[in-house]
Design brief:
The structure is a homodimer. By secondary structure, chain A is of the alpha/beta class. Chain A has 11 helices and 11 strands. Chain A has an 11-stranded mixed β-sheet, sandwiched between helices. Chain A is globular, with a radius of gyration of 19 Å.
């Protein structure tokens, strides 16, 4: 089925696969996001819109996109937000997520983005494409807004509920490269999320990870950071196990909801709208994969495409591979 | 030294030991806190003010307290906020914290409160007085404010960085009794802090703790709660390991700092001023011990005394002992 659609390739082209069926507002907001992205896009980016063609057709007619900039790949099935990831991926091979990973794995696209079932995206990222050689466990990072307007990157935020010390060390390398090349932070400061500042503090995992991070020449390690430092400008890259990181991320997300309900309008707290950032990168896999929030709308989709393009144009994956060569 | 001061006992009296030298604003704010508490106090509460008599004397002259309501116990030494807890407690036996625990352990006081060195308070609580029989590890809870004005209780928030599933089960029993009798919550709902809602989610600890909480007849277990639920009114008692809880607590505390810096005045966010609540109870030890924040001022000290009195008048420790009998 896929081959029949004949995607054209150019040497310098970046081809971004986008799941049009993922998220609460798909496919309309995905189309709008593509529109926003393309309005200021580079000419060497081509989108591959993966989803139900019949559903997309009238929306594309109402919201026309420049024809040369995209291709549609029909995927008749959708994995629901609450389906079991592994089971759904296996049973729904014609779903937009399964097709998206197939295109990515076979080199028909260079990156894949979806705001659909997070678990299915994680499973797909881990099993459809490979981890970078030497990476024990890929990780997912999330942005934390700072008062001065910059972003910090917290990893892991849920892909690895239980971690070994070496996992945290590798998350730090991967997140540092992302912070440097995609967030444009020079010499990103890495902090280990912990329950106290002093060396020697922590649970067994943090105690064992500390010396690994400290001895790692690829990092600008500043030591332990506490919960109170996560929203401050103390570290650019903040490392923890995926259980702690997931609880922190969702707590931080809930602050925005409370601020909204309290009808507080504040420039900084508005930046707690995690939808703004579009999605979180899966780091440590051999191709760029971005997982969007279920509530993603126009701006989120546009930002996710931009992040994927930035990952490609900076050859982030190549830099990650180089960091793990011989490790 | 202590015996010479001759504390008087009455059968119905509740005698609360208060470290006057702990915290950034000691001893003045501790004196003010006692004053505030006594202005609305029950007649059967007596305070034992533990600290440097010479330092306290001029402050007590300037801020006179009703003489019948308190006794002073001189403690010439102070454990600094950054001293090593075990070492300091051992070497400074005339410090206010060491004397405070001695008075508590020997029955000269019924409860002990300090806003001093948190680590020393934890060590003192664990080793000077005993854990309740059957309690594997005592825990420390912290309050989480809700929009409707009530408080949730999160435990553990740092006493136990690494936990076993049975620890979490016991924290839930202890925190539930505190929520019921001190926070006056009928049938407190207990939630397990986790990275997903569904049963089976989580790290190994949460996965193993879930069935224990579910099967526990002493709990009103509502299942897993996520980071986004911690500041909502979903569960009254929220259980996690002390590493996660500590990061969550300090992150929540930092929200108030940000709100202050942004000059946002909002009734709900004002309640994120954790100083308001005075201190956190150590749960599972055989006497009431309350650990205050280093920045504690008048209201915090007053509230800590009130919490200790409430723990005594409801015989919370007796109820905890009964819950662990035969377990």
């Amino acid at each position: 089925m896929i081959a029949g659609f004949g995607i054209f390739y150019f040497a310098s082209m970046m081809t971004i696969g986008l799941d049009m069926m993922g998220g609460d507002f798909a496919p309309l907001e995905a189309i709008k996001g593509v529109d926003t992205y393309l309005s200021a896009a580079r000419e060497d980016v081509r989108l591959v819109l993966i989803g139900n063609e019949a559903e997309m057709a009238p929306l594309l007619k109402a919201n026309p996109l420049p024809e040369a900039s995209y291709t549609i790949i029909h995927a008749p099935e959708v994995i629901g937000m609450h389906e079991h990831p592994t089971k759904a991926l296996k049973e729904k091979q014609q779903s937009s997520i399964a097709v998206g990973f197939h295109l990515l794995a076979t080199g028909k696209t260079d990156a894949f983005i979806s705001a659909g079932n997070t678990g299915a995206m994680m499973v797909g990222a881990l099993f459809s494409i490979k981890a970078i050689e030497g990476v024990l466990r890929p990780t997912i990072g999330a942005y934390m807004p700072r008062e001065k307007g910059t972003l910090g990157l917290l990893a892991d935020v849920g892909l690895n509920a239980d971690c070994k010390p070496e996992n945290l060390n590798q998350f730090a390398i991967l997140a540092t490269l992302f912070a440097k090349h995609v967030l444009n932070i020079d010499q990103p400061r890495t902090g280990l999320v912990n329950l106290g500042e002093e060396e020697g503090k922590g649970n067994l995992l943090a105690q064992a990870a500390f010396p690994l991070l400290k001895a790692n020449p690829l990092l600008n390690f500043i030591g332990n950071i506490e919960g109170r430092d996560i929203l401050l400008d103390k570290a650019d890259v903040m490392i923890c196990d995926g259980f702690t990181g997931n609880v922190v991320l969702k707590l931080a997300e809930s602050i925005y909801d409370i601020v909204q309900r309290r009808r507080i309008s504040d420039e900084h707290f508005n930046r707690f709208n995690f939808e703004t950032y579009g999605g979180v990168p899966v780091l440590g896999v051999s191709k760029p994969v971005i997982i969007g929030h279920g509530i993603s709308q126009r701006m989120a989709f546009s930002n996710m495409i931009r992040t994927a393009v930035r990952m490609l144009e900076t050859d982030l994956i190549g830099k990650m591979k180089a960091s793990f060569t011989g490790s």
